[in-house]
Amino acid sequence: MSEFKGVTVIKKANVYFDGNVTSRTVVFADGSRTTLGIMFPGDYEFNADDKEIMEIISGDLEVLTADSQGWKTVAGGATFEVPAQSKFSLRVKTLTDYCCSYVKI
Questions:
Q1: In a domain, 3, yes or no
Q2: How many domains does the chain have?
Q3: pTM for the whole structure
Q4: Which CATH number do you get for residue 86?
Q5: Taking a C-beta distance cutoff of 8 angstroms, is the pair 59, 70 a contact?
Q6: Exposed (0-12), middle (13-18) or buried (19+): which is 56, by Cβ within 10 Å?
């Protein structure tokens, strides 16, 4: 999906790691939410309350999730999932454009 229709966009940015990771929240009519953001190269660790589905639109990175055996390379056009109630680490190699969808379980 290249665009969202009939949504609400929260104007205030989500800013992490001194501005190296930023996003905007998109809220759908059913209450579900997604964030659209940019990550600059660097190493980051996040906590996931809900299950997350990360779509990498462009860029490349490595991800380490709680349920993985090791680092996995992910490039533009690919997705990965993060289990709910877990931590995950990213090694962002190039400027990365992403879409993160949150799945309530």
A1: no
A2: 1
A3: 0.92
A4: 2.60.120.10
A5: no
A6: buried
Whether residue 39 contacts residue 20, with contact meaning beta carbons closer than 8 Å, is answered with yes
Residues 6+ apart with CB under 8 A from 70: 64
Dist. CA 10–CA 29, nearest whole Å: 14
Per-residue pLDDT tens digits for 20-53: 999 999 999 999 999 999 999 999 999 999 999 9
Q: Rounded to an integer, what distance in angstroms lies between the CA atom of residue 22 and that of residue 71?
A: 23
Which residues fall within 8 angstroms of residue 21, CB to CB, at 6 or more apart?
A: 15, 37, 38, 39, 40, 44
Nearest to 23 by CA among 102, 77, 100: 100
Q: Is residue 1 part of a domain?
A: no
